[in-house]
Amino acid sequence: EEQLSESGGGLIQPGGSLRLSCAASGFSFRDYAMTWVRQAPGKGLEWVSSISASADSRFYGDSVKGRFTISRDNSNNMLYLLMNSLRADDTALYYCGRTPTGHYGSGFYFWGQGSLVTVSS
Amino acid sequence: QAALTQPRSVSGSPGQSVTISCTGTSSDVGRYNYVSWYQQRPGRGPRLLIFDATDRPSGVPDRFFGSKLGNTASLIISGLQAEDEGDYYCCSYGGNYNFVFGTGTRVTVL
After folding, report:
1. Which of A31, A44, A79, B56 is the most exposed place for a label (fewest CB within 10 A)?
2. Any residues with CB less than 8 A from the CB of A57 and at least 6 apart, and which?
3. C-alpha triplet A54, A58, A63: angle, nearest 5°
4. In degrees rounded to 5, what are phi and psi of residue A55?
5. B96 CA to chain A: closest CA distance, Å?
6. Are B95 and B27 spatial neighbours (Cβ–Cβ below 8 Å)?
7. How many CA atoms lie less than 13 Å away from B60 in the CB half-sphere?
8. What's B5's DSSP letter?
């Protein structure tokens, strides 16, 4: 059974840093592009960042560009999101997702419950 | 990149059909067949219903149907059931390796 499990969230002060992790199992992790999507409390979904299967290409939404870094460890089936210079509007539930096909743009499977990041003093 | 436009809410009685529209531009929905749809029940993570505009993942009932015409994609839910209540989001690849989500639609089963 395919699974994704996010962790690493918590309460952090503005300007601080946090690293989210996503553990993948049940599929060949190294064969798929991976993505982070977030959802602020009571709001809709927002694409944050994606990384190619081989990690040679990384992409970011405008709201996080220059502050967040996506990475992956294909040997250990792990996806990461390093978040620096956190702001109050980064407060959200963060989900990791996998493409359903080999095509980057196809969409995302989300199998986890997300990791909550709260940025507040 | 502006969010895709969805109706705020739609409703229907059990057994009826409802349609959720998702309007973008010629730079996203109109340009690529990379439109996906998600269902989100209260307190749950998003569930993929449709990818590549019309394809259903295994396990998704064929009551969920995706289509696209020009700059607008649509999700049709036929034979509406109580368990279909929740929020629905569309998403489109927007070029330059970016994605844009829709504003979300609340589906209510009367």
Report:
1. A31
2. A51, B97
3. 155
4. 70, 15
5. 9
6. yes
7. 20
8. B
With CA atoms as reference, report the closest residue to A101 among B81, B73, B55, B27: B55
Given a contact cutoff of 8 angstroms between Cβ atoms, the answer to whether B101 and B47 are in contact is no
A-chain residue closest to B43, CA distance: A113
Residue A105 forms contact with B (CB below 8 Å) = yes
pLDDT digits (tens, 9 = 90+) for A10-28: 999 999 999 999 999 999 9
Alpha-carbon span A57 to A53, nearest angstrom: 8
DSSP B33: S
For residues B45 and A38, what is the distance between their CA atoms, to the nearest angstrom?
Answer: 11
C-alpha distances (whole Å) from B6 to each of A68, A90, B22 are 29, 24, 5
pLDDT digits (tens, 9 = 90+) for B85-96: 999 999 999 988
Interface test with B, best of A1, A5, A35, A47 (most B CBs within 10 A): A47
Sheet holding A45-51, edge to edge: A10-12, A115-119, A92-98, A34-39, A45-51, A58-60
Q: Whole-angstrom Cα distance, residue B15 to residue B38?
A: 21
In which band, very low, low, confident or very high, does the pLDDT at A103 lie, cut at 50, 70 and 90?
A: confident
